[in-house]
Design brief:
Layout: H1 11-17, H2 23-38, E1 43-44, H3 47-54, H4 58-70, E2 75-77, E3 80-82, H5 84-110, E4 118-119, E5 125-126, H6 146-155, H7 159-170, H8 186-201, H9 211-224, H10 227-238, H11 255-258, H12 261-269, H13 277-293
Antiparallel strand pairs: 1-3, 2-3, 4-5
Helix pairs in contact: 2-4, 3-4, 3-10, 8-9, 8-10, 9-10
């Protein structure tokens, strides 16, 4: 599955198309459109997941959803929320990206070898070193010489990259753990959904998918019943204001806290919804003051 970092927006057409929508409906509609592009046309039609991104009650989203469906702004296709314009733009963007990669690869292969030898039918230059196979992604080449270019593609940019790649190869995920809908590793999908959630709520993104994080997230997915349980956890978190800085410390939710065993369990059981760190801190301060005074 490709990835889209941006998409075309036509302001005049957008304003005309949203003319009959209310302020509330416009906000929800624009968020849904962003989610469709961010998930490359694979946005699940799950009320809790969507309402979590909208920071609203599920009933509010269901009302808006019915309105958008009635106006033809969105449609449900194979259990996913879709939009005709989004589908067209996504298909075009992915097609352009594929064409660019193929053109770059063709260009790389057409370059004559920098050698005084002759090329035989086995793609080997006689009398010198054999030609290396072209890298999988020519756009990723950064070094100046061909040897450095191929080296970076094959072994990565640093020793940490090599160690990370090696450990990833050792981490075997059974087919039963994979997501049936799109064939993706549920752990990778969960990381992607966290980053989408974090970006839309102003939370820290998960920049490095370390093995310890993968192991913890895999365990949380097992406990929650898979990717659907993970989405439920995100939806629950979206309804708790203090997780987004509304507390006495300015603390914000992050991936390490979320995948922690105790934190995740409390979130799923609803314990966090009743806990207000600011109130807890105030009560603790009062208790300390009472003890200091000897009362």
């Amino acid at each position: 599955m490709g990835k889209l970092n941006w998409y075309k927006r036509f302001p005049h057409e957008a304003l005309e198309g949203m003319f009959e929508l209310t302020l509330e409906e416009r906000g929800a509609y624009n968020t849904v459109i962003d989610l469709i592009y961010a998930r490359v046309n694979k946005l699940p039609d799950e009320d809790r997941f969507i309402s979590g991104h909208l920071r609203c009650d599920v009933r509010v989203w269901r009302r808006i959803r019915a309105r958008l469906l009635g106006l033809g702004k969105i449609e449900i296709v194979d259990g996913r929320i879709a939009n005709d314009r989004c589908t067209s733009e996504i298909d075009s963007a992915l097609s352009r990206g594929l064409s660019a990669r193929q053109a770059a690869l063709t260009s790389w292969r057409s370059r004559p070898p920098k050698s005084s030898g002759t090329l035989n039918e086995n793609n080997v230059v006689t009398g010198t070193e054999p030609l290396a196979e072209p890298p999988a992604d020519p756009h990723a080449i950064q070094s100046k010489t061909k040897k450095e270019k191929i080296g970076k593609e094959l072994v990565g940019n640093s020793e940490s990259d090599i160690e990370e790649s090696s450990s990833e190869r050792k981490s075997v995920v059974s087919p039963r753990e994979r997501n049936d809908a799109n064939g993706l590793d549920p752990v990778s999908l969960a990381f992607d959904e966290w980053n989408i959630f974090a970006q839309s709520h102003g939370l820290p993104l998960c920049q490095r998918r370390l093995e310890r994080r993968k192991a913890a997230l895999r365990q949380r997915l097992k406990e929650a019943g898979g990717i659907e349980g993970w989405r439920t956890a995100l939806a629950k978190a979206a309804l708790i204001p203090w997780m987004f800085g509304a507390n006495d410390r300015g603390w914000r939710l992050n991936i390490d806290s979320l995948i922690g065993e105790k934190f995740f369990t409390k979130l799923m059981e609803g314990a966090h919804a009743n806990a207000d760190p600011a109130a807890i801190g105030a009560r603790l301060f009062e208790e300390l003051e009472r003890r200091r005074r000897g009362n």
